[in-house]
Write the structure tokens for this entry.
Amino acid sequence: MSRFVASLPLLSRSGAAVLGGYAFCWGLIAFGVAAGFTLGMPFHDAERLFSLLALMLYPLLFLWSFSTRHGARLWALLLGGAALMSALASLLQQRLL
């Protein structure tokens, strides 16, 4: 039992690195494409640009997940940022329609 409890911080950081990093990058792509298209950029150019930016950001988020001291702040930043960018992307998309 104590071995499992000792591995919980590692499991939490691993989950944050994989799932939280993915959610953050997905939110970045959604918001970036919506914002780029709203500002007049062709859709596929905005999609390609922000997908490449997210591809470069994901390994940095992954590494940061294991280097930070504050696990709760890590989860809050990754999931909060993902939720915020997704909500902003949804509002921009509704504005376009």
